[in-house]
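Incident review: delayed structure delivery

Summary: a single-chain prediction request sat in the queue longer than the usual turnaround. Root cause was a stuck worker, restarted by the on-call engineer. No data loss occurred. The affected request and its eventual output are reproduced below so the record is complete for anyone auditing the incident later.

Affected input:
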Amino acid sequence: MTTHTRSPMPSSARPVRPARPARPGRLVALPGVYAPQYDTEMLARALYRERIDDGASVLDLGTGSGALAVTAARQGARVTALDISRRAVLSTWLNARLAGQSVTVRRGDMTAGVPAGPYDLVVSNPPYVPSPSPLLPRRGPARAWDGGPAGRAVVDRVCDAAPGALRAGGVLLMVHSALCDVDASLERLAGRGMEPAVVDREFVPFGPVLRSRESWLRRRNLLRDDETCEELVVIRAERR
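Output delivered after worker restart:
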């Protein structure tokens, strides 16, 4: 079994107040759809830092509730949101309507069904939590967070798909946990013609999913015995 040990949490990062969950107006998240949390807020902040021009084309891969799609639309972007879940597609459509924003919502696989670009910006909050099962769930709420034993089953597919969806100079913004190996994402993106860097990070208390898997994660050396917070990172990668 492949394992890796993470470096100690820097003392400057203890303690850290977690960011407030993103709440872009009224939000509907049907049962089984990922509701906005700390990772959503981090991506929303990154979106605002990009200073999206009116009419810029944005693709939200794995849109969930559509929180990020609505955030980009409010900045004047032309947004396409994609998710394989019917309930996520419906939630995004409802949230765009409630926010008075125009978002094109499509149902399809996060990578194989990517609508034709090129896009100025791709944003993604993919499933990234390491899970004991080698098979990704086909239904239910765990579909929104289970990323396979290494947490990279979907993350790798986003890294592979984003460069082909972006114009030259276009940007990918992706958030995931340090549990699924930040360096692996940076190296994979660099190998596909991108210039990646970590532009934000937060240490947040374990949520219900990680608490339920603590013993398994510690046995795999993905968590230290004294670790009680999860490190989340936002990766920004520009296509060369």
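Verification: The first strand starts at residue 57 and ends at 61.
Action items: add queue-age alerting; document worker restart procedure.
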